[in-house]
Design a protein that fits this description.
heterotrimer; A mainly alpha (613); B mainly alpha (504); C mainly alpha (104); B: 504 residues; mainly alpha; two-stranded antiparallel ribbon; 75% helix; 3% strand; C: 104 residues; Helix Hairpins; 3 helices; elongated; quinone binding (chain C); quinone (chain C); translocase (chain C); EC 7.1.1.- (chain C)
């Protein structure tokens, strides 16, 4: 089974082609087709997962291209991190496939939707199996394509079009960082293989400054994909896509690819302290920055999007402070509870047909399933004890504390507080309070939608126990292949709990005073509500300057290039006009000129003694 | 059989020409079918050659050499001196371009079904153009190369000027003047070499000029060699074209009929790349090495310049035209790196751009056929009515912007790999172009397919025979993108030989 | 008998040629110009005959060629004079600088 693991991504690919070519014939049954293929690939992944719990990593490659004396290979690799991602991605993808059958019910282009989901799942699964950077880059771009297609699924909407384009270009800016880092590594080590690169790094074959540069460039790729500051602006806009897509791509899997990338190339970062610091600071700042924006958003999906950015920032913070296991752990738990939250939010949107939380309220009684499920997700992300988010967040806090950077630690705590606050603000304003504007009957979503949510909820509660101070650190042991000693720090847990409690408390008090959603008048509020004007800043600097360059080049094209041509034409014409005057009709004059020219040529020949050498 | 296969390949379109010539010029349908059938024969022969190569037959066994022209009576010194033979030969590198030519000619002939007038003249010139292109890639001496080069030049001039959009005549004259200058430079170089060295055979020239064990009748000073090399490169840079010689190509792409542009962008621009690599690198390796930095800089400028300009065009044809300028920049700097990765990237990019540009301009033909316009501002939301067309356009756009899994990526990647090795800083600047490529492609494609519909009519979607070019070109694009080895193996050997000449 | 050297023939031919050239380029009367051209042709004839006798490989070819030249010269003179007559009938002049209508 393990040596046939390359089949896992091919099932969704088959589903993609099948649905793309024969989608019309399947009609609404496309949902079943897509789900079936994803399910098969999940089962395979699960089998591989159980097998590899005991086996060491497995790798298989074959030649793809020859560059001079270097062989570029493709293949697949199964190490603990890869297998973990494999099973996580296929599982959540399958659940989202299922959920979408209910959510996208009645959509005309449902076969296309499922085809795109298949394409994305294929690329993501292949991405996490890549044994080398080039292959990773290939699928890195392909998941971007899947994301782009799904964001632009409602192609007739101007916003969707703009968001899709923005997502593609912003992430491509990041990708270029990865490309640069990857190529530089290639010329240092003559290989894209992780193993060869890591060996070279360990042996110290690469100079420290170059290594730092390379690591930072690779991190730029991660920043672009994971929506970290300063390349984050596409992620909130990406919420224009259908909600299940947001759950799968822009919460659980693709955006986490950045974290995966840094984790997969971790030895590179470990070799450079500066790079680690950059990762940590970027992560920490994004965490706080995004959380602060989430506090004032009124669109349920955007709150969750900023929350995702903030949580991914947390993971980078962990990676930057040597908390490799903590980051991966949080990646896993976050995938479950954030997917749950998005799906629950989708269920709410499905029921009330709006995304604006100002128009919601009092839905607790109406949505019997969605309400409690959303609450579980909210509790998990807020870090309430005994749920999964609590353990992973505690782990991150611990690694930051151990690192000894108190500035970052403060950032992390503040973010925790804000997280708890904005999540409960969201929860209370959707489910608490009075019912608003009952435009039409609010109905609970069908079973096909709440069943996946229940599964996710179970995992959101329970997945944390794979890595706890009390029952053992299975995940860490497995990932790092050694028995990691885990310190027990009760005080940190207490602080984390208290901080979350304060956040929830504030949310509750404000909710009671029903001033959760009141808009502030202060300039600080306006700055945050406008997302710190980052979009506007980019608009005014990058886009405007690019356009300016283009425009000025248009003038160069018109006046210099074509102008030069025009000048040449004019000169030729002028010369021709003058030259025609020579044709006077006087035969004797012609003869004289011809004779004189001959004479001159003969003299030149005599003087030069031959022709041009 | 081996002795006649190459001449047969070159002149096989003549059969189609005779068939067309015998038809009255009013028989529209038959003429179009004959035109298309005429391109099948070279296609089959070239596929046969490829199949032979796969089975391990040496391509050099097809080489032919017939006595042709002899100047003066110097047989007493050396019977190869001042003779020009009719010699054709084949290697992996030229086979790649021959396959590109035959496949694209067949597809362009299909796309030519949209030609509205004077089918007879059109298809006669079209097949003549194919003869020229095939000859260019097979000619084994410079004079023969030049003759075939001029055949493409003349037939293309009429194809552009006769069957195009509004300003076609003007575009044709631009083409004539620029390429005329290029031809003059080329002829000057060829004539000088012939007079000084006494042969135009490429292998012989390479040997005599670089090994230097033969005393020349009239020796060439280093200065003159440098000048010849520069002139040769200017000639091919005009053909390629790179900044600042590109303006004729933009006009041609805007004004010529789409099938002609398919061939022009797909094959004829590549003659520039082919000539640079085969003749430039072959005959003047030392000089090329001296100029390498210049090539890289000009290539990067071209790449960025085309990308920036494509960003603000309002006509889809112009977007693709500037994108061609930009992509040819990649070929140029890939060539300039003079290392394995870069050269391979340049060849890959030449082939890949051939397929992608042909596809893009085929889609222009489809678009214009339906909507009567290619102005971005007049189009929008086509995905609603023409989902398949939009999907294909989007995919082709993605191929053009270098999405992995398609040919554009691997060629850009290799070229950049090479550039990073030689000039890291320049490469980092050039990377901006990759972002711009994404920006302008998506801008144009999404403007047409996404967003609000600007107006609605009952256009039909892609149908029937229109699928054939789309499917074949996608197959080529994806085949190179997914498994580049098959193309790499064809050219690897030749690249190694060229590099030995420089480094050795 | 002291033979006349080759250079003497050549100098004579040169002088004749120069006179012819001078006349062809400067005289205004077309008839004179035609006569001057005949003079130049004859200079060439002298050269041909001289080389046929004194050349590196003496042969009869030179003399044959001079006969050819004479024939051609006769034909040329006939055609030239005919054109001249036609012109004179039209323009009432034989001045060469008035025959300048063949310009752009």
């Amino acid at each position: 089974m393990v040596d046939n693991a390359w089949l896992i991504p091919l099932f969704p690919l088959a589903s993609f082609f099948l649905l793309l070519l024969f989608g019309k014939r399947f009609g609404s049954r496309s949902a079943e087709v897509g789900s079936l293929f994803t399910f098969v690939s999940f089962i395979c992944a699960a089998v591989v997962f159980t097998k590899s719990l005991h086996e060491s990593s497995y790798k298989q490659t074959f030649n793809w291209l020859t560059v001079g004396d270097a062989q570029i290979t493709v293949g697949f690799e199964l190490n603990p991190l890869n297998v973990l991602m494999l099973v996580l991605v296929s599982f959540i993808s399958f659940l989202v496939h299922m959920y979408s059958k209910g959510y996208m019910n009645g959509e005309k282009r449902i076969s296309i939707f499922y085809a795109y989901l298949g394409l994305f799942t294929f690329a993501m699964l292949a991405l996490v199996m890549s044994p080398n950077l080039l292959q990773l880059y290939i699928f890195w771009e392909l998941v971007g394509l899947g994301s782009f297609l799904l964001i632009g699924f409602y192609f007739h909407k101007q916003e969707a079009k703009r968001a899709a384009k923005k997502a593609f270009i912003m992430t491509r800016i990041g990708d270029m960082g990865l490309l640069i880092g990857m190529i530089l590594l290639f010329w240092q080590t003559r290989s894209f293989e992780y193993s060869v690169i890591f060996q070279a790094v360990e042996a110290g074959d690469i100079s420290q400054s170059l290594l730092t540069f390379i690591a930072i460039m690779i991190f730029v790729g991660a920043v672009g994909k994971s929506g970290q500051f300063p390349l984050h602006t596409w992620l909130p806009d990406a919420m224009e896509g259908p909600t299940p897509v947001s759950a799968l791509i822009h919460a659980a899997t693709m955006v986490a690819a950045g974290v995966y990338l840094v984790a997969a190339t971790y030895p590179l970062f470990q070799a450079s302290e500066v790079a680690l610091l950059v990762v940590a600071v970027t992560g920490g700042l994004t965490a706080l920055f995004a959380a602060s924006i989430a506090v004032v958003q009124t669109d349920v999906k955007r709150v969750l999007a900023y929350s995702t950015m903030s949580q991914l920032g947390f993971m980078f913070l962990a990676l930057g402070t040597a908390g490799y296991v903590a980051a991966v752990f949080h990646l896993v738990t976050h995938a479950f509870f954030k997917a749950l939250l998005f799906l629950a939010a989708g269920s709410v949107i499905h029921a009330v047909h709006t995304q604006n939380i100002e128009k919601m309220g009092g839905l607790w009684k109406k949505l019997r399933w969605t309400g409690p499920l959303f609450l579980i997700g909210t509790l998990a992300i807020s870090g309430v004890p005994l749920l999964s988010g609590f353990f992973s967040k505690e782990e991150i806090l611990l690694s930051v504390w151990d690192n000894g950077n108190y500035f970052l630690f403060t950032l992390a705590l503040l973010t925790s507080l804000l997280t708890a606050f904005y999540m409960f603000r969201l929860f209370f304003s959707i489910f608490g309070g009075e019912e608003k504007t009952p435009i039409h009957a609010v109905k609970e979503s069908p079973m096909i939608m709440w069943l996946p949510m229940i599964i996710l909820a179970v995992f959101s509660i329970g997945i944390g126990y794979v890595q706890t101070p009390w029952f053992g650190t299975f995940l860490g042991d497995w990932l790092t292949n050694e028995n990691s000693h885990h310190e027990f720090s009760l005080w940190l847990m207490l602080i984390a709990t208290i901080v979350s409690g304060i956040g929830i408390g504030i949310a509750y008090i404000l909710h009671r005073k029903s001033s959760l959603l009141t808009e502030g008048e202060s300039s600080a509020y306006r700055v945050v509500a406008n997302k710190y004007y980052i979009d506007e800043l980019y608009e005014r600097t990058m886009i405007v300057s690019t356009k300016a360059v283009s425009r000025s080049l248009v003038y160069i094209e018109r006046y210099v290039i074509d102008g030069f041509l025009l000048v040449v034409i004019r000169i030729t014409r002028m010369f021709a006009k003058k030259a025609t005057k020579l044709q006077s009709g006087q035969v004797q004059q012609y003869g004289a000129i011809a004779f004189l020219s001959l004479a001159v040529l003969v003299v030149v020949y005599l003087v030069a003694g031959g022709y041009l050498r | 059989m081996n002795d006649y296969l190459l001449p047969l390949l070159v002149f096989s379109p003549v059969i189609g020409m005779i068939m067309i010539w015998l038809m009255p010029k009013t028989e529209e349908k038959t003429l179009k079918q004959f035109g298309w059938i005429g391109t099948l024969m070279p296609l089959l022969i070239s596929l046969f050659l490829y199949q032979q190569w796969l089975t391990g037959v040496s391509l050099s066994s097809y080489q032919i050499k017939w006595n042709w022209i002899q100047f003066g009576n110097l047989a007493m010194y050396d019977d190869t001196l001042y003779t020009i033979d009719f010699e054709l030969s084949l290697d992996g590198f030229s086979l790649v371009f021959i396959l590109l030519t035959t496949v694209l000619s067949m597809l362009a002939a299909l796309a030519s079904f949209y030609i509205k007038t004077e089918w007879k003249g059109y298809f006669l010139l079209f097949l003549l153009l194919e003869i020229g292109m095939l000859g260019v890639f097979m000619a084994d001496n410079l004079l023969l190369f030049f003759l075939f080069f001029e055949v493409t030049f003349v037939s293309l001039f009429f194809l552009i000027g006769r069957w195009g959009y509004v300003n076609k005549e003007k575009a044709a004259y631009h083409f004539l003047v620029y390429n005329g200058i290029g031809s003059v430079l080329l002829l000057f170089v060829i004539a000088t070499l012939f007079v000084r060295v006494g042969t135009t055979n490429i292998d012989a020239l390479t040997h005599i000029l670089n090994v230097g064990d033969v005393a020349l009748l009239a020796p060439i000073s280093p200065f003159l060699t440098d000048m010849l090399c520069i002139l040769l490169f200017i000639a091919f840079a005009i053909k390629l074209p790179v900044f600042p010689f590109h303006s004729w190509m933009v006009r041609v792409h805007r004004e010529a009929a789409p099938p002609v542009v398919m061939l022009h962008a797909g094959v004829l621009l590549k003659i520039g790349a082919y000539g640079m690599i085969r003749f430039g690198l072959g005959i003047f390796p030392e000089q090329v090495e001296k100029l390498a930095l210049l090539f890289m800089i000009v290539g990067v400028i071209s790449f960025l310049y085309g990308a920036f300009l494509a960003l603000v065009q309002t006509d889809l044809k112009l977007v693709w035209a500037y994108s061609s300028v930009s992509h040819m920049g990649i070929v140029f700097f890939g060539f300039g790196t003079l290392n394995d990765a870069g050269l391979q990237g340049a060849v890959f990019q030449a082939v890949s751009h051939g397929a992608i540009a042909a596809l893009l301009f085929f889609l222009i033909a489809l678009l214009y056929e339906r909507t009567g316009t290619t102005e971005l501002n007049e189009l929008g939301g086509l995905a609603e009515h023409l989902p398949i067309f939009s999907g294909v356009l989007l995919t082709a756009g993605l191929a053009a912007l270098g999405l992995p899994g398609m040919s554009g990526f691997i060629s850009e990647f290799m070229a950049f790999l090479g550039l990073f090795k030689e000039q890291m800083l320049l490469a980092i600047i050039a990377v901006i172009g990759l972002i711009l490529t994404a920006a302008y492609t998506l801008r144009a494609v999404l403007k047409i397919t996404f967003g609000k519909k600007t107006y609605s009519m009952t256009w039909r979607d892609v149908q029937g025979i229109e699928y054939v070019p789309i499917a074949i070109l996608f197959m080529v694009i994806v085949a190179i993108g997914v498994y580049p080895m098959w193309l790499g193996q064809l050219v690897q050997e030749d690249i190694t030989t060229w590099l030995l000449r420089i480094g050795g | 008998m002291t033979s006349v050297p080759l250079s003497a023939y050549l100098v004579l031919a040169l002088i004749l040629f120069c006179i012819g050239l001078y006349g062809a380029l400067t005289k205004r009367n077309t008839v004179i110009v035609l006569i001057s051209i005949e003079l130049m042709l004859n200079a060439v004839n002298i050269n041909l005959v001289a080389f046929s006798k004194f050349g590196m490989t003496p042969a009869i070819t030179g003399q044959v060629f001079s006969l050819f030249t004479m024939t051609i010269a006769a034909a040329e003179a006939a055609v030239g004079l005919a054109i001249l007559m036609a012109l004179y009938r039209n323009r009432k002049t034989v001045h060469i600088d008035e025959m300048n209508t063949m310009k752009h």
